[in-house]
Amino acid sequence: MLDKAAIDEPSAKLDVLCPQLVEMIEEGHKALVFSQFTSMLSIVKKHLDKHNITYAYLDGQTKNRQKVVESFQNDPDCPVFLISLKAGGLGLNLTAADYVFLLDPWWNPAVEAQAIDRAHRVGQTKQVFAYRLICRNTIEEKIAELQSKKRKLSDAILEADSSLLKSLSKEDLESLLS
After folding, report:
1. pLDDT tens digits, residue range 138-164?
2. Residues of CATH 3.40.50.300 domain(s) within the chain?
3. What pTM was computed for the model?
4. Does residue 56 sit in helix, strand or coil?
């Protein structure tokens, strides 16, 4: 994303994402693809264009959100919806999708859950599959670990798991609240 000259070079995430999308499209499915970076979505657009895959696109600059949403929801020839996490995390009903791909993690797991929930809405009749694409030995993996730790801590507090609560350190509580 940082080196524009490297856009056409191999990418672990795109090497996973593109074949997955081609396969699910061949099987008649639709997918939401979320990224927090519009520059990443631009790279994905180029790869989808190479594969002749039609897509809808939504970010903070999109003028007519409802028209774009309706196009994805109602057009059987538009199987992929590229969405920035911030623009698409709330208020969208995207039940045409039964696959969700998160291209990069966000430190707050609730943001990712809200993105996945765009496909889990009233009227959804299909099972929804969600995938997080995380590269090993990267900051992404550390973010995923932080999310997991925060989720366990919050679950323990909400469930009043006394054994886990007693073992919490001051750092654990600060991490949960930060």
Report:
1. 787 887 787 777 777 777 776 765 566
2. 4-132
3. 0.79
4. strand
